[in-house]
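Quick one:
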Amino acid sequence: MDLEQLTIRRVKKKELCSFFSSDFYAHLKHIPFTELRLKSYQNNPNSDPEDYILYFIVHNNQIISYRTLLFDKMFDDSKIIWSSGSWTNIRYRKMGLSKKLFMEVEKDYPQQSFIYTRSLASKKLYDSLPYFHPIVDLESKELHYDFSILKKKIHSKYVDRINKILPKNKAELQNCIEFKNLKSTEVSINSFLKLNTTDELFPLSEKKLHWILNFPWLSKDEIILNEQVYDFSINDASFLCDCFFSIRNNQLNSLFIRNIRGNTFFLHYVYYTTENEAEEIAKFIVNEMNTNNLKLLIVRDQLIQKFIKKYKKPLFIKPYKNFLFVPTHLKSITESKLIQHGIGELIFT
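Output:
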């Protein structure tokens, strides 16, 4: 197959609905997004109708490679792009299609792409591009509360037997601070976020937060596709995505966002003003871990880590390996700003 003869097609945000409803899309074996992601892309407050959301290559009336884009805003209100999905049919891999699509994105949005990945194959691609600067996350940790981490070295049936004899969860910890769920409470968080996100590379706004909470990419209920294949997560019975906050003296004083997916607890954005608030957040997390019988916690904030280990001592602690690539010309800026664990698309997937 001659790569030079393959045409790259694009779909703008304003065209997403008609593309999703087209006969072409209905006859695809592999689809680039589900209805959940469609709604998320359509309601993204940081993208414009003319922005390209999807790039893809067709061969024999089927998409064989695609790349989706997720638009975000930096601290200075400049627009950047996360690569929110990159896939190539297994029959056409190692032919340079993914890179071909990425270079097309670069033509349309030069040096605006930010890459977050946990894939070693993807890391290899971006390592080869001279205009990207890699950032190594040395703070995010995996806290393991059973022996499942050993399944790569020991037969899973033996690990499962060991896990069954582990002590049961302890009694619920008493919180001295009441945490409310933002979904069920009418409260303005704009001033709090503006005050607490000034040093962040990608500040969290109230508008962005409501978009995240209302248009997740995962469904707690099973979604069955009509003989079409979607190669990323879509169903997760354990999925929860919520924002919690506390109020002191009639003012909001702490806020955090957690996702539960794949039976793993992810602490994304977290803000507090005192060590006592951090400790209370840690106790809240431990209670949720116990209630949902979760055995893995991903957390970046070091003070939260300290208090969680105080109340729920992990069996294993290891780095949470993730790779962030930023445009080289923004290297100095990214190094002077805080990078949240909830960066870009991580909050969704």
